[in-house]
Amino acid sequence: MPMNPFSHLTDVPEASEICDWATERGIMILAHSYQDGFLQEAAHFVGDSLELARKAAEAQPEAICFCGVHFMAETANILCPDAEVFVPDLEAGCSLADSCKAVDLIRYQDHLEQKLGARPTTIAYVNCSAEVKAAVDVICTSGNARAVVDSIPEEDPILFVPDMHLGGWLNEVTGREMILWNGACEVHELFSVDTLLVLQEENPGAITICHPECPKRVRDASDEVLGTAGMLKLVKASEGKTFIVGTEGNMIYRFEKEAPQNTYIPAPGASCACNLCPYMQLNTPEKLWAALQERGPQVVVPAELRPGAEASLRKMLEIV
Ligand code: 13P
Ligand code: SF4
Questions:
Q1: In a mutational test of the pocket of ligand 2, which residue from 94, 99, 166, 190 has the highest number of ligand atoms less than 8 Å from its CB?
Q2: 179 and 102, same domain (yes or no)
Q3: 12 alpha carbon to ligand 2 midpoint, in Å?
Q4: Number of domains observed in the structure of the chain
Q5: Both 181 and 106 in a single domain?
Q6: Half-sphere exposure of 256 (CA within 13 A, CB side)
Q7: Is the whole model's pTM more than 0.90, yes or no?
Q8: Atom 6 of ligand 2 has which residue's CA nearest to it?
Q9: How many CB atoms within 10 Å of residue 156?
Q10: Is residue 272, in this structure, part of any structural domain at all?
Q11: Residues 171 and 199 in one domain
């Protein structure tokens, strides 16, 4: 890694200066591991969806600048109701969250209730809007999804939204037959299994790790299926290994920083090799610096959605 990989940024202070500046003003900067290296360096805490939700709930800071995507900032606002929550770019959304509108979900829950004679328990992956969170029974993240599914009595039918790939993987590993919503992440959906197989042949001995948001054909060609926190734990515990990484490209920044003893190769995407999430990339150092000074744009979950969304999030936090 070069000494200062961000030296081209002339209009913003150094990442560490931004972090100190925010500390002095009572602002906690949280960043998802899919954010670019500068944003990770400027943050007080970098984590996966579960760790960031927990951090917001436990720290209860005066203000949070959330470097991630919109549903993550909403989660922080729900779990930390007294904090001002703001983001570098309000347009940073998520294709998975967009694939499940609350109105369609409620219609489908009603339909299933009629068909099955009982309303199924609905589990939502955290990648969904606050409106969807308010309409479901419990939330999960990639880090605790198995435990959340296992916590539902075996005889209860389950509807899992919105990620069909994560849901399909959970059905495989838990033996449940959850009904799945038809959503997908546009980044993880695009990994190419054909080029992955070629890469594996070129790198004998390499360990392929992929996120459960990847389609079955990619998961089946991988050695380990893990959420981002699980991946980090594995690479930190490994020595001198080569990993082919099937998740968002910026994750490799974190691996190289925290586990430099290994080699990391991005798994090939269908059309490009960057594997970057276009929504996460909307957050830039310049926008972070502007957001901190303006304490905006803010993310505020409407009052009528809070109790339901908070209940399903708290239920998850009680499970794991
Ligand atoms: P995790 O950090 O929970 O693994 O989530 C991945 C993701 O796609 C976040 O948008
Ligand atoms: Fe959403 Fe996929 Fe981007 Fe994660 S990587 S924020 S799931 S579009």
A1: 94
A2: yes
A3: 27
A4: 3
A5: yes
A6: 15
A7: yes
A8: 94
A9: 12
A10: no
A11: no
